[in-house]
Amino acid sequence: MYGVIFHFLRDYVIERHGGEATWKALLDAQGYKFKLYFPVQDYPDEEIIALVETASKALDTPIPVVLEDFGSYVGPQLLSFYHMYIKNKEMTTFDVIEAAGGSIHDVIHKHNPNRKPPRLSSIRESDDVLMVHYQSHRKLCPVVRGIIRGLGEKFNERFDINETQCMHDGADKCIMKVTRLDA
Ligand code: HEM
Predict the structure, then answer these.
(1) What is the pLDDT at residue 35?
(2) Measured between alpha carbons, how far is 9 from 74 in angstroms, rounded to an integer?
(3) Cα angle value 96/159/138 (rounded, 5°)
(4) Which atom of ligand 1 is nearest to the CA of 1?
(5) Nearest CA to ligand 1 atom 27
(6) Terminus-to-terminus CA distance in the chain, angstroms?
(7) Are the C-beta atoms of residues 27 and 34 closer than 8 Å to each other?
(8) Digits of tens for pLDDT over the chain (183 positions)?
(9) Taking the CB of residue 63, how many other CB atoms lie within 10 A of it?
(10) What lines the ligand 1 site, CB under 6 Å?
(11) Which of 163, 115, 151 is nearest to 136 (CA)?
(12) How many other C-beta atoms can be found within 10 angstroms of the C-beta atom of residue 86?
């Protein structure tokens, strides 16, 4: 996973879960006195999983809940960090999901031969309903839900998210019916 995600995890822990001391404690639990993550460098997925597992234990909160909350934090951050890929400044949450599936993840991984981007696609069933398909060996569907909610907060939109099938139940991909609710 790219260092940029670790970077956001650090910011997330510091902002929402007790500041630098909590982040230091998490690093300490992984055996690091100090660790810098460079945004475009690839780090082992196991490292971020271990950090999230430790955070979940420390917060006494299930891993999927931590992942979804992290997703809600990281969605708007990704949007600002990678603003150069956002052509249309009048975007809505559905537009960002479509752009992420269409080109954003691919462009980011273009120069990385070990690329393992998530596969994201979506079908607009109506103005207010988007079917989101997600496939990745990382099985991070709670992060997907969180990103959608976080983008919704940014764009002042609320969603009902109903996962109709999930990789954690043996499906080949996760499918979510995302319905925009009245603001
Ligand atoms: C501005 C829009 C977005 C940008 C710039 C962006 C960028 C990224 C980057 C840099 C990563 C790390 C990839 C890696 O380390 O290999 C990532 C991972 C991920 N992104 Fe996005 N993303 C965006 C939108 C979205 C949206 C809208 C969703 C879903 C609704 C999404 C779902 C995910 C998931 C689940 C991962 C974790 C990796 C995995 O599951 O394999 N992203 N994204």
Answers:
(1) 87
(2) 8
(3) 60
(4) 15
(5) 97
(6) 35
(7) yes
(8) 889 999 999 999 999 998 999 999 999 998 988 888 988 888 999 999 999 999 999 889 999 999 999 999 999 999 998 888 777 778 899 999 999 988 888 887 777 777 778 999 999 999 999 999 999 999 999 999 999 999 999 999 999 999 999 999 999 999 999 999 986
(9) 14
(10) 1-2, 4-5, 78-79, 82, 96-97, 100, 104-105, 108, 116-118, 120, 136, 138, 140, 143-144, 147-148
(11) 115
(12) 15
On whether the CB atoms of residues 175 and 162 are closer than 8 A, the answer is: no
Q: From the CA of 104, how far away is ligand 1's center (Å)?
A: 8
Which CATH number among 3.90.1520.10, 3.10.20.740, 3.60.20.10, 3.10.180.10 corresponds to the domain 93-181?
A: 3.90.1520.10
